[in-house]
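Run folding on both entries below.
>entry_1
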Amino acid sequence: MYKISKKQSKAIFLAILALCMLLTGCGGLSKKEPAKPAVPKVTKVIATYVQAPLNVPSIIEKNKHFLADAYKKNGIAFDYSTITSGAEQTTALASGDIQILNCVGGSSVLLAAANGADMKVLSVYSTAPKAFVLFGKNKAITRPQDLKGLTIAGPKGTILHELLVAFLKKGNMTIKDVNFVSMGIPQARAALEGGSVQLALLAGPVAYSAEKSGMHVVTTGEDLVSGLTLTATSQKFYKEHKDVIDTFLQVQKETLKYLASNTAEAIDITAKETGLTKDAVEGMYKLYNFEPNITDETKKELESTQEFLVSSGLMPKKIDLSKIF
């Protein structure tokens, strides 16, 4: 019979031990982690198209196919959605029907985030404090104190509503000192002209035409509100498809460069798209700043809007703003 030496026995034992350790994952050899499911490749991107009050960059982007062409280079289809309501935009983002909100009010982003929606602010779309206006017929109304007891119409939970609250605060007053009636901008102007309200909160082309018709400007949003609108997506989409978002942000910057070099053409295109006169577009365009960079001032403005929403009972609680940037 063949005899195994002690040296051979030890070698066999060590080999068997090593095999056991390998099979059982012992001895410092880690188990193989299960592979994470691959993130599906993006084949189509949908962004909102909001034309009003005077979103010239969006109008030019669409007219010139800037976004569509940029995504096409990467094999991605692109389309617009004409959802304009802030609440409907954030709902569509949460459902995955839309990937990018290209112009959404800061208040809509805050309200969605406070209610648990996954939100990420990408850039500033515009600021335009002078484009938001409180009008009246009585030219004697100039101070916040003059508003006491009057009926004022305008859209609730918006920049215009925030403007009214900020103006009243300058006179140590609150929204409770007036009769605020919530209604859309065109309806508010009609109510003011019809005499059922004494003041109306207007913006965009409606405000421009009201001022041109000689209607009394009580105050604009200057030094009261920023008129801040934003672009946004979800944190999840941003993390999984940062390349898609980078393309969007690059096109946003390139569009602004195009506007700076082709302002006259942009005004012509905007006039045709909106049905406004060139003079109206030129007059309104001067009120808007489309600088996209997020600054400390941007965050302060959003914090101010959050204070307004919470104090007005429109937002259930404050959120940590750092979590949406």
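>entry_2
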Amino acid sequence: MFKKVIFIFLIFPLIFGCSQKKEKWIFVLAGQSNMAGRGIVAPQDTISDPSIFTLTKEMKLAIAKEPLHFYEPNLTGLDCGLSFAKELRSQIPTNIEIVLIPCAVGGSSIDQWLNDSSHRNVKLYSNFKSRITYAKSLGTIKGILWHQGESDAHLKKLPVYQAQLEKLIEKFRKDIGNDRLPILLGELGDYAEPEERNSNWKTMNQILYNTTENDENLILVSSKGLQCNPDKIHFNAEAQRDLGKRYAKQFLILNKKQ
């Protein structure tokens, strides 16, 4: 009799669909090439986790593995997305699944994002909007990981960047439907060459910091000490893995405040 009771207890959820439902936390990866990823993908980066998903080019939910981005087939590389998700996974309840929405396109400027320009065959804001619209049917959009600014780190563009970024953030939140949505702003690397570029990138990082000072639901993600590819523009693979962990730690700080 006792064995029959145990059997019924175990089999009942399977028959009647009463197993624990998974909650999905969704994160958008947006910006330009250092979010799209230019690191070398190693075998360790393709190890999947059954609780971490991505949205494919065909708008299909799939188990995530690097490379996540697909908009520039000849330039795909390791980004920080899976590293972010794995670090976050280790810190949140097991009944939560993570979904990554890749939206970054290399070389895109903030003007192009604001104006929904077509860049490298991607209509930037329309693509973002269509993906978040679908994503909202899957679960809750918990945040945006933003890394962009290299294309705007020039003397003529820097003075207006903060106003443009604040406008874009407002637009992101309006379309997602959360005016307190956490958004994490990644610093540009501190390795840029020549000196003029390095100076402009430092100015951009100061602008990013200033932007976070005006909004408690924005937070800066440091790039201090991260290494680059030989081009002195893009984070290398090791840096991308570290950057993902930094994004995760900063998200957890913001999430505790909400």
